[in-house]
Amino acid sequence: MRNLIISAALVAASLFGMTAQAAEAPAAPYVELTNPVPVAVPGKIEVVELFWYGCPHCYAFEPVINPWVEKLPSDVNFVRIPAMFGGPWDAHGQMFLTLEAMGVENKVHAAVFNAIQKEHKKLVTPDEMAEFLATQGVDKDKFLATFNSFAIKGKIVQAKELAKKYEISGVPTMIVNGKYRFDVGSAGGAEQALQLADKLVDKERAANKAAAN
Predict the structure, then answer these.
(1) What domains appear along the chain, each with residue ranges and CATH number?
(2) Does this model's pTM top 0.85?
(3) Helix (H, G, I), strand (E, B) or coil at 127
């Protein structure tokens, strides 16, 4: 009986120790990629947001992330990449890449999001997109020509390859300097996601300075 009591006490102590250990070392809210992905602009710390116009969580993230992007320091390069998992994801991603190539994405990005999320427009065919974008001041013929261009097809391939390398499974997802991946949920919320991004940017900045010395 005494041995049973001692054994039970040891098991309890062991379990308590494991619980305490887990409390002391919570899981990191981000994943460090096994194979880091090269950044688009060498010498700058890159922050990527992968998104989809059809994602309500991405839409809700917009009013939080946009002011943050505007205040980023000059050594940080922010990049939006459309996640393209087929169907409307691909259609919307191709639209974003087309608008970006035309240099008008910043002007109509919010309007496209509103049209899909609030006005329930599908915008999945080139003609639907062109008709709507014309109301936002985008030349219809130029949009359609760019949408179907060889250059955009190349950008689609590149975007899909990056998503695979980042090993994303949903959106919105953020990648810092091609090394760290996290989403709004794992970070604990929209504001927390940006605070985490700031911490990882600081970490990379410190590592760059150490490497330079």
Answers:
(1) 31-212 (3.40.30.10)
(2) yes
(3) helix
Tokens representing 57?
């969580």
Task: Check if the beta carbon of residue 181 is closer than 8 Å to that of residue 166.
Answer: yes
Closest CA to 94 of 81, 110, 106, 104: 81
Contact 33, 166 (CB under 8 A): yes
- 26 — pLDDT class (breaks 50, 70, 90): low
Cα dihedral 170, 172, 175, 180 sign: negative
Nearest to 50 by CA among 135, 170, 152, 173: 173
Per-residue pLDDT of 163-198, as tens digits, reads: 999 999 999 999 999 999 999 999 999 999 999 999
Q: How many CB atoms lie within 10 A of CB 164?
A: 10
Structure tokens at 119: 């006005």
As given in the structure block, the two tokens for residue 142 are 């130029």
Helices (H), the chain: 2-24, 56-70, 88-102, 105-117, 126-134, 140-147, 150-166, 184-187, 190-212
Q: 189's torsion region: left (phi>0), alpha (psi -120 to 50) or beta?
A: left
Is the CB of residue 185 less than 8 Å from the CB of residue 31?
A: no
Which pLDDT value is given to residue 27? 80
CA distance 84 to 98: 14
